[in-house]
Amino acid sequence: MFRTFVTLVFTDLVNSTAMKSLLPGEDITARNQAYLETILVPHRRVIEHERGACGGRVVGTEGDGCFLAFDDASIAARFALAVQRRHREQPIETPLGPLQVKIGFHTGAPLVDPESPGNYVGREVDCAARIAGAAAGGQVLVSETSAALVRSAELAGVTLTPAGERELKGIGRLAVVELHETTVPARTVEPTGRPRSNLPAPPDVFLGRGKLLEELLDLLAKQGLVILKGEGGMGKTTLALRAAHDAIEAGMFPAGAAWIDCSTAPGLEECLRQLGQIYFGDRMEQEPIERCRSRLIEHLQSAQALAVFDNFETVASDQALLRWLHDLGPRGHCLLTTRESPALGHGRVLQVRELPRNEAALLFMREAQRAGSTPDSGADAAA
Question: N or C: where does the chain have the smaller number of CB atoms within 10 Å of the terminal CB?
Fold first, then answer.
């Protein structure tokens, strides 16, 4: 059966859930209505206007996203760049600042859905959707297949920058390319090799936290402060470390991941200098501290970077550090492990509780065996 090659484009809005909760309104219905009228509908008008100018058709919409198909990858490229340009030049204001859109596309020969002839199904569709999910706000990522077609079209004013490989769920590792206007710098940071990081080695043993790890990774994929809260010995550090390494492997933080051990009670300036060293390759010693402070806020808000503060309860009374985290706001990627929630007024809290008895016993056995001991497995059961 003859199958036609098409370029499949997905768009999505960044932080739409958080926007809805921050809009004015007496209840969720009123806030949803405000979101529809002031953000989603104006954005969809941009999509429709640029689609009409470039060609292509809407395959479907789901939530805040849009699925489109184009007969030509170069036309899809012009559409995607036009959408991002319109949002830069005529921004749609939200409680979190100007609306940001991420776009991804892939070219292939997908199957036509037999129950819905205007729709497509198959791996090519999944690939395009996953590439869009890997993009940052304001960014367009494309597969190497699409990039090759765009290159051959020799579009004036269009640049393709390698963005390394990304681990795409259900697809595997795939090389992606950033599409951007020549006059607009690429968003990609360190496209080759691993992102800059000072993460300690990942835990050798990780048991009993699979569901919590999945929830934590889902939160880290969005912008904002995440707080792992629990008593000492509950495994908060292990969980944070496992999540940070998994996020790096999944390509979530190409701009770097910084780990600050707060057990030594570092002050704000020391924290900022450490972050600067990790992200930018130096401690920015020559920069005034206020410049360093604002540069890091901009980096954590606009780039795909993560800051982890372990044992944060040690510095929870440092007002200067709290103010900096407050100013970082809901657009920055930040993870805290702590025994008590800090007085920040924002952030999503994940409670880390004691493992069930059987999982704790298994963890003990694994650790003991790794240490060269062979405990009696029946001893715990008899206790």
Answer: N
